[in-house]
Every structure is written in structure tokens, then in C-alpha cells.
Amino acid sequence: MTSQLRDRSISAVIANTSNAEDVLEECGIDYWFDCNRTLAAACAAAHIDVAALEERLLPSASVATQPADKSISILIDELNSHLRTSIRPAILGVRKAAASVSDARTNDLLTMVGEIEAMISIHFELLRRVMPAVTSDTTVREHTNPEQRVVRDLALQHALLALRVKKAVDLASQLARKGTAEAIALAGIARQLAKEIHHHIRISYQMVMPYLFAMASRRSHEVEPW
To answer: pTM, whole model, 2 decimals?
Structure first.
């Protein structure tokens, strides 16, 4: 890219380029949870030439809407919509592509995808549980603030999802080394699934979770279900 991105956060770089996740992955830079770091800081920590990395980044075709400009309830609604329109179809795509690859390792990949799907279902069920707190009028919000353990569970699930998605991509990449068109296509679809889940984690981790943690901290300890 011609414009410098080094002083922008990793989150902003990903939102405004079409290939940042692939480039950062290749360079060994964590882009799942530490997205508030600047690109320059992340490159320095990984001993990567930031100028060379910038040159590899391609501008996105569309201008991303900044999550900070949206309310929390709208963000959660969009995350739920993203599950239906992007994440679940991507999971189905991996399953369909895996059926065309003849290799024992596809069973391991499908097992991992099944675990990812189960975790996502649980994760979004928890997310729905906190919606009353987000949408309530301020006069009743004190009584609907989310339970602290539920918010902590949501945060933990982000980390577990990331680990399983990375494992699924690794398995698909191993299969791609077979060199067949079907295996290579499968690896591409698995990477797309990873991008969709990363989008959810990035928005949720940066924008939704801090808000929910703040709300949970205001909940009376007397009503915590310990």
C-alpha cells in the first residue's frame, strides 16, 4: 500500500485491507487478541521489517464502518447476523470440501470443525443471555446487569475458539501439501472460516467484552449465583 499503516492499530489495518490476516499469520504476528497494538509495535516485537510488510498489504475494496461508531446492542445484533450469514455457511463449506479429499486426516479436521460448531452454539447462547442487560432501560439495568461468571465464560470461549480454529487451519494446510486441487481448495475454505470467526472475536473482544465486564462489575455480589 502507498499510505503508511504502521501507526494504526492492527484492528484498523485488518478492517481496511483485504489480506492483513494472511500476511500477519505468515509473519507470526498475533492478530487474534492483541489488536490494539500498532502495526509498528507488533512488527518490532516479532523482528519484522514494517515497511516490507506494509508493501504486501492490499487495500480493501470497501471502507469499513468503525465499530466504535455503533451501539453495543447493534454490534451484538450484527454478530448474531454474522453467525447466520457467514460463520455457519463457512462451516458447511469446510464439511462439503472435506468430503472430496481422500485422506485419513480429514476425519481429524471434521472432528475439530464439529467442536468449533458446538462451541459457537454455546457461545452465542451465552451472548443472548446478556442481551437483556444491554437493551434494558437505564432505570432497570441495575437488576439486569450480566452475571460476572457469564462474561468471564464468554471471554474464555474466545480463547478456546481461537485455538481450535488455528488447529483446523493447520490440519487443512497439511492436507493441502498433497497438492490436489480438492485439498488446496479445502485449505482455502478453512482459512475463510478462520477469518469469519476472527472477525467475530475481534469485534467482540475489543468492543463488546469491555462494556459487558464494566456492567458485570456493577452487579451486586449478593445476587451472584455462587
So the answer is: 0.72
Distance between CA atoms of residues 79 and 87, nearest Å: 10
The residue to which cell 470461549 is assigned: 157
Contact 183, 103 (CB under 8 A): yes
Q: What are phi and psi of 59, to 5 degrees?
A: -65, 145
- The amino acid at 143: H
Average pLDDT for runs of 10 along the chain of length 226: 78 86 87 82 93 90 56 78 92 95 93 93 79 54 61 82 90 92 95 89 75 67 42
Contact status, residue 79 vs residue 208, Cβ threshold 8 Å: yes
Q: Which residues of 69-105 are buried (b: 16+ CB within 10 A; e: fewer)?
A: eeebeebbeebeebbeebbeebbebbbebbeebebee
Alpha-helix residue ranges (DSSP H) falling in the chain = 10-16, 20-27, 39-46, 50-56, 72-82, 88-98, 105-135, 148-176, 181-203, 209-217
CA distances from 152 to 18, 55, 99, 217 (A): 32, 39, 37, 11
Answer for the pair 128, 208: CB distance below 8 angstroms, yes or no. Answer: no
